[in-house]
Specification:
- By secondary structure, the chain is mainly alpha-helical.
- The protein has one domain: Orthogonal Bundle (Helicase, Ruva Protein, domain 3), CATH 1.10.8.
- The protein contains six helices and no strands.
- It starts with 7 loop residues before the first helix and ends with a helix.
Amino acid sequence: MALPTLSPEQRQEALAKAAVVRKERAEVKAALKSGETSLETVLSSESQAVRRMPVASLLASLPGIGKIRAQKLMDDLDIAGNRRISGLGPQQRDRLIERVSA
């Protein structure tokens, strides 16, 4: 399947939208890292930018958890490595929050 050809205006619009999404995700990660917000708050967010964020990326931004520990945590909880926040089930969310807050 070929990618659609975009006009220069459409391309600029898409780039601007992507920049906004990246900025919002970076702000969420920084807030988690600094302790301004909790994992529970982020997981219950209605923002599409946040909901499409990979779980591994989110976990790696928590204090004391890096990429390796995040992957091990996901393996322990049977969460696929490519899972996004919106793809988590209620039980997976609960177990993840319980495990991280412990």
